[in-house]
């Protein structure tokens, strides 16, 4: 049965980096659904209520469950805006969901953002505008990653839980 990993948190927290490392670690037939890729690159759409990214991401989840061993869903994924996506996740994957939320300080997300190749794409003001403090899911249990967890630790923890 296919397994779903959800990685959420504010911009610059490390979600995409972790998702990419997990995809390489799990190997072939691991699908990554990136909110930024779907919304910004595939659809060039705005986020928020009524975003056309929501129904496409739901379809990608369904596809992933049918055709991939591991599906990784990553993004800011505002709990309220994407509530329907998380309901679809529960319907499709049942108990095979492993969810994680980066709860780290704003200043650290800015520091991390400034080390990325796409640091020039947006700045601190954008990150402030997108900031959503402690946006935990109400319908799926999430493990919280704080500033203390290193990337390698998060990668190993998730891999061992999902593969085990």
In short:
The protein has helices at 15-26, 35-42, 53-67, 83-93, 106-113, 124-130, 151-163; strands at 3-9, 30-34, 70-75, 97-102, 142-145.
Characteristic terms for this protein:
164 residues; alpha/beta; five-stranded parallel β-sheet; 7 helices; 5 strands; globular
Strand content: 15-25%
What can be said about the biggest beta sheet?
5 strands, parallel
Q: For the record, give the distance between the C-alpha atoms at the N and C termini, rounded to a whole number.
A: 13 Å
Strand order within the widest sheet? 2-3-1-4-5
The counted number of beta strands is: 5
Summed over residues and divided by their number, the pLDDT gives a mean of 96
The whole-angstrom Rg is: 15 Å
Structural shape: globular
Structural class determined from secondary elements = alpha/beta
What is the succession of H and E elements?
Answer: EHEHHEHEHHEH
Helix content: 40-55%
Tally of separate helices:
7
The low-pLDDT segments are none
